[in-house]
Amino acid sequence: MRFWLLVATVLLASAAQAAKLPKLTLSGPYASVSNPLIHMVESGALKDIAEQVEFVPWKDPDQLRVLAIEGKADFVAMPTNVAANLYNRGVKLNLLNVSTWGVLWMISRDPKLKTLADFKGKEVAMPFRADMPDIVFGLLAEGQGIDPRRDFKLRYVANPLDAMQLLVMRRVDHALLAEPALSMALRKTKSFPVSVIAPDLYRSVDLQKEWGRVFKTEARMPQAGIVALGKSRMDAKLIERFQNAYAASLKWCQAHAGECGKLVAKRIDLLTPEAVADSMAVSQMRFVPAAEARPELESFFKRLHAKQPALLGGKLPDAGFYGATDHGRGANP
After folding, report:
1. pLDDT tens track for 246-256
2. CA dihedral for 228, 234, 238, 243, sign (positive or negative)
């Protein structure tokens, strides 16, 4: 009897092992949206469904697009407009959730600059040309009657960490940054906390509050989330497992900002645990399934489309974009 129990146990273990995926690749930028992904890898949150779970960073929009088009990852954190653009261009993806609702700020050496209009005529370091930070900045400026190309001296850089480095080296005095790069700039220049005498840099315009004020809406934007790529988006059980794990990891990062900072900084040399923890305290991070976020996404997308249809691939994405469904039903084929 014991022999057959042993055989059954071995067979069950072998079946469970065989059911595991050989590898699951998660990818994202050096930004707050990736913190839960890094925690998922470090904590082994998905070890029961894949032999190997890895996090692969992307550093700029061009690298992201290649990664998505070539299907080199299963789940990818990206700006929502990029996800819509890729979907409309035929890339096999579905938006699963939106988690980043507010991480964009202006930062300056001048404490007197409180509105975008105050930056007129000044050089501003701007990451990701023609992508999320640049787009939001342009829409907010135009909404106040300001020409973003004529009224500012925009200095484009590859990503927020590059803009942060320019600030720290005093090669620029003003920048638009996404967290955690902004908190890192404040830490590197000892411009924290508020009580520090004569800080070198100041947290200036909160672009989320500006968005709410200018467009008479909530002070937040559906800026970034997670997409499923290729075959992964067709596996309903995998999608559900991922969604639950991501939501749980986001909650963990918010409740344990210091520990989360250590995990993230271990993988990103330019960041410190303290800066990541600072960023978690000020960032609007909230897990919302894509279908639930659809009304706010469509409102956001309509503003982008009115400004430049190519930002979304020429049109608003259809219903199939908003979350993978059982066995891929409704997914972009």
Report:
1. 999 999 999 99
2. positive
